[in-house]
Amino acid sequence: MAEKKKVFDIEIPSIRQTTSAFSTGSDLLVGKVIKLDMAKVLRGKNIDAAFVISKKNDKLEANFISISLIPAYVKRMMRKGISWLEDSFVCKARDANLQIKPFMITKKKIHRSVKNALRNKAKEHIIKMVSERGAQDVFSAIIHNELQRSLTADLKKIYPLALCEIRVCKVVK
Hints:
This protein is α+β, with helices and mostly antiparallel strands. The protein has 2 domains: 6-69, no CATH class; 78-172, Tetrahydropterin Synthase, Chain A (2-Layer Sandwich), CATH 3.30.479.30. Helix content is 29%, strand content 40%. The protein has helices spanning 26-29, 71-77, 112-131, 135-143, 146-155, and strands spanning 6-12, 17-23, 33-37, 47-56, 59-69, 84-86, 89-92, 97-106, 161-172. Strands 1, 2, 3, 4, 5, 6, 7, 8 and 9 form a 9-stranded mixed beta sheet that branches. Helix 3 crosses helix 5 (146-155). The model has no long low-confidence stretch (mean pLDDT 92).
């Protein structure tokens, strides 16, 4: 006879929230990935997050493995007469390697040399910030906009930005 499925509570300490999963046993949930839309939690910021479930002290816990901006949010920010910049690189946090893709929109059209200067300064700033923290701290900093605010302040010295976001951040093996 088949086992009955039960609802298990999963704690997500990074965002101080609890979610539920349906399974026959809690051990079967370990290693599974949960995907959540964070728009409600972050009051309108359109981020999708993926969490991996682990077991600690007989409790199920979920930790970030990736976050990404919803493409419609990025599309909505695009205007005529602006320049946009993207980059992609892997950097080392204290406990994991993270692939980070910053996305920036300037207030007006700019030259390629200014784009390169912004891209290089952003990469340098992000690598410095990430190397000082653990992976979960980096995800929390991105969720709470700490990383983006400090990055915008740093890049404003080169050229003013209309938008500065981390489009994708994920753990890579």
